Amino acid sequence: MKNLTLKSIDKNNWEEAINLSVREDQQRFIASNLYSIAEVQFLDSFYAKGIFLDDRIIGFTMYGIDSDDHNYWIYRLMIDQKYQGTGLGVHAVKRIVDEIRGMNNQQIPLIMIGYHPENLAAKFVYKKAGFVEGELASWGEQLAALSI
């Protein structure tokens, strides 16, 4: 999907990003975009990006190199509830993976993601994008990995 792009969260679009929302039944699965935008200020090698369809922000992601295991991690990914169920989540994951591949000058072998085991929508999206489930993390999330 060529009209789906990632753009840095900045002073011009942060308010649009924090106004995105998931369905009520999904809210327990993900931190707010406002929290994530604050958190990324203190994480080295992490990026907060808006997911845009043409010129409209439809989602949010935060990804980078985790200092614990030195793999890329997608810490956050959300698609606004108005755009869910359209296949845009899978396309967004593929755009994020492409961007990580393009910046991977350290030859890091994996992109990792963790999600709540009951979040079946996330499980479906990540599997369709090529992620392979692994173990449950000690903090309770289902881990999945993609070789890059």
Offer a few descriptive terms.
148 residues, alpha+beta, Aminopeptidase, 7-stranded mixed sheet, 7 strands, 32% strand, acyltransferase activity, transferring groups other than amino-acyl groups, Acyl_CoA_acyltransferase, GNAT family N-acetyltransferase
Could you outline the blueprint of secondary structure elements for this entry?
Elements: E1 4-8, H1 14-18, H2 33-40, E2 46-53, E3 56-65, E4 72-79, H3 88-103, E5 110-115, H4 120-128, E6 132-136, E7 142-147
Parallel strand pairs: 4-5
Antiparallel strand pairs: 1-2, 2-3, 3-4, 5-7, 6-7
Detailed description of the structure:
The chain is α+β, with helices and mostly antiparallel strands. It has a single domain (4-147), classed as Gcn5-related N-acetyltransferase (GNAT) (Aminopeptidase), CATH 3.40.630.30. Helix content is 26%, strand content 32%. The protein contains 4 helices and 7 strands. The chain has helices spanning 14-18, 33-40, 88-103, 120-128; strands at residues 4-8, 46-53, 56-65, 72-79, 110-115, 132-136, 142-147. Strands 1-2-3-4-5-7-6 form a 7-stranded mixed beta sheet. The radius of gyration is 14 Å and the shape is globular. 26% of the residues are buried. The model has no long low-confidence stretch (mean pLDDT 95).
